[in-house]
Amino acid sequence: AEIVPVVVIGGKEYGTGSSRDWAAKGPKLQGVRAVITESFERIHRSNLIGMGVAPFCFEAGRTRKDYGFTGNEIVDIPGLSGKLAPRMKIEATIHYSDGRTAPLPLTLMILTADEVGYFSNGGILPYVLRHLLAA
User: Fold this and answer.
1) Tens of pLDDT along the chain (135 residues)?
2) CB of 53 within 8 A of CB of 22?
3) Is residue 35 within 8 Å of 54, Cβ to Cβ?
4) SS3 readout for 65-124
5) Which end of the chain has less Cβ packing within 10 Å, N or C?
6) Buried (b) or exposed (e) across 96-114, using 16+ Cβ within 10 A?
């Protein structure tokens, strides 16, 4: 009801074994704005971008366990509405429920200029519609 964006925290090969198309649509419909993992299943990563959900990976060698996530944190990810570039580094901030904060270095797993265009337009469908209307 408050329309608060949601961030999903995951482990390795996030999206493996799922009905990949719906595995990206469902979270988008539930308000998920970003997914932060150790790694992604290749097609699922692409489907998230196609739905306008930002895929991020923790910095190399780090996992969700290193940050002590409990589900009560707020994660601020600056720059998603600004100029994006493939594999860009972003420093998010974790706000813990006890008042502490910690940096969260991330890599945006948008890998191509085309994917930047899809994500920047809110997903592949809005991207295509905007280009058709502009023609």
Assistant:
1) 777 889 999 999 988 876 666 778 888 888 899 999 999 998 999 999 999 999 999 998 999 999 999 999 999 999 887 899 999 999 999 999 999 999 999 999 999 999 999 999 988 888 888 888 887
2) no
3) yes
4) HHHCCCCCCEEECCCCCCCCCCCCEEEEEEECCCCCEEEEEEEECCCCHHHHHHHHCCCH
5) N
6) eeeeeeeebebbbbbeeee
